[in-house]
Amino acid sequence: MAFHRIPILLLYCAIILTCPESYGMSVQDSLHYKDFRYLFSGIRRSKEEPALQKIYLEAFLAKAKAEKDWELIVNGYKNFADYADEKMAIAYADSMVYAAKQSQDDKLIGSSYLSKGIAYYALKRHELALENYLLAKPYIEKSEDEYLQHKLKYNIAHEKYYLGKNEEAIQLFTSCLQYFKDTNPRAYLNTLHSLGLVYNKAGDYGKSMEMVNLGNRAAETFGNHSMDIYFLHLKGLNEYFRGNYASAIKYLKEAIPEIRANNDHGNVTVANFYIGKSLWDLKRYRESLPYLKQVDQALIDNNYIRPDLRESFELLIGYYKDKRELKKVLYYVDQLLVADSILTITHDKLYDNIHVNYDTAELRQEKENIEKQLSQELADKRLLILGSVCLAIIIVVLSVTLYRHRRRNRIFRELMENKKPIAKPVNDAHKELLIPKETVDKILSRLEKWKQAQRFLEPNITRASMAVHLETNVHYVSDVILHYYGKSFTEYINDLKIDYIIEQLKTDKHKRMFTHDALAKEAGFRTTQSFVTAFKARAGISPNFFSAKIRKEMNENGNL
Questions:
Q1: What is the tens place of the pLDDT at every residue in 489-501?
Q2: Architecture of the 437-556 domain
């Protein structure tokens, strides 16, 4: 009897194998009466089986449409977006926004725009990501949903970080930190990692490592190790900037496989670049080449570039120029021009958009909120006085902001017209110089030759090393500089460095894309922070403002 059943069983298997669509339909039919929790669980369980997962996804969305529940329909499209590749995720996000608008639910609409922005951010389309965050903002504010408000703030902070507005990004991330710690462990770990990235970019590697250590401890506490590999990646970056190149290579190489498995091509590219940079700084140039070339591959495959990664093209150009391989030099010059074009367009548009549509809007919204509050409290004289004070403060803040804006533009114009900043008066500048005139003349002559040779760009210049070069003693060095230039020794050296950098930014379009760290190294400063401080002291504006402003002007004049 059993032998008679075998052909029937084989026939049944053949039907299933030759008609997979029919099999899929039968499975989907069997899911028709399952609840949404069961279907969602099936979606998550089958992520390693795309064909089966698609059946669960379609069943969830079909059931939501059948019940005409807009929130569930939105969730259905979100499920598709979460498990689709990055480009298809945008199409599903569009459907999600459309469905949310049909619901007329502020929370649902705001959440959908936010998800669409995050999908664009995953593609490194920063301008479109910000555009959708700003569309989400009024709906999320009206919904009064605290989680969505902090999630929006978190994603805006990432755009601030991308633009180099480190202090503003730190403020936004920090304001999210405690909320997420109490409500969402994964979001808390993400925020710790993001803060670590900003501190790293700002040059505060100690604070960045503090975030790494906090993240590792929190992962143990929550039993959630989903961010461990990214904390390791960040640890590798900090080791590079601290000059611990062997450790940087070790950590970054360990991080790459798992990050690549997450399809996170951006962080894989960053890891490869800093492995290459570590090898380059160790003078292992040939070993560094394959890693540096990964930046070019990311530009070709994904149109991905960010300001610090562009240095790979400069290193490759210099390497092949020394080898007299001119075809390769020409290729990497062309690729550098492509990278600069992408960076200039993306960075400037995003900078203008976030300033006009977010920063200014936030200030106006704060003003409107205070005015509404004042109008409701006019009956109470004491609150009216308080309101008047608040309004006065706002006026002062707006006035100060306007004054600073005009002042920064005036300073910028003066720098562009070669009007050097006026040196600050030093109390002892006109003190009688008790040094023989012949000695003074020799010091001044040698100092001028030293300056013409641009020796001031060397790092670690001290009064002692200067005295040796000028063939005099350290006291004479300080006294002559103070008497003839009205500056302390340190201020004199720093001003020469900054004047050089200002001239470079005015004349060299490539230098305008340099990070603060790269400019600091170019001028011979020990740290990025000392460079920024010296630039502000000398020029009266930040290097970030000067670089952004000059790029914008040159772009408008067609001179980039």
A1: 889 999 998 899 8
A2: Orthogonal Bundle (1.10)
